[in-house]
Amino acid sequence: MIKILIADDHPLIREGLKKTLKEETDMKVVCEAKNGSEVLDLINKNKVDVIVMDLSMPGLSGLETMKELKKQSSDLPVLILSMHPEERFAIRALKAGASGYLTKDNAPQGLAEAIRKVVRGGRYITPSLAEKLSFEIETNCKKQPHELLSDREFQIFCLIASGKSIKEISDMLFLSINTVNTYRVRILEKMNMKTNIEITHHAIRHHLID
């Protein structure tokens, strides 16, 4: 029996995932978390075989949580289940240690298969993502400015680009306004930009926001 921890800050999403997996006779959801801190706490109290985790959670982001998980349980597979399209976060997630990346749109059809594959020690990626990874490995093309950002910087970059205010970002990520402002300044410096409008134009041009 594959024991699963589901991590998502939306109760309806967690219920939907449990419903999707209910018919799988070899799987059982044994615990749920609504944020990264709960994930780290639960794996110390429960025996699980795989974590199915969202990227956009309050507090610790999915990427930050995964890095902490890898420090604690390097052999525990993590399947990222995200609303974000592959080109936005998938490569970052895999580099951070994820065993697979699945968008929520594809979850009803692919979730059980993805879980079985990562539990067996494999990687679950779509053909289109495999092509992107191959291109990145085989070419030495110049990195785009947004690829120079840390995971947290990239997260805040995307939120700024989508029109969120510093206060809104502060509330969403449980960071102080001063901390978010510091990240914004760092992002502008790394990307050689001066305004939020430039950030938004870059994000749109590279399909980083919806």
Radius of gyration over C-alpha positions, nearest whole angstrom? 17 Å
> How many beta strands in the DSSP annotation?
5
Q: CATH first level of the largest domain: which class?
A: Alpha Beta
Major sheet: arrangement of strands:
2-1-3-4-5
Anisotropy-based shape = globular
Q: Would you identify the regions where 5 or more consecutive residues have pLDDT less than 50?
A: none
> Biggest β-sheet, characterized?
5 strands, parallel
**CATH architecture descriptor of the largest domain:** 3-Layer(aba) Sandwich
**Distance between termini?**
38 Å
CATH-level-4 superfamily name of the largest domain: Response regulator
Order of helices and strands: EHEHEHEHEHHHHHH
**Share in β-strands:** 5-15%
CATH topology of the largest domain: Rossmann fold
Could you estimate the helical fraction of the residues in percent?
40-55%
pLDDT averaged over residues? 87
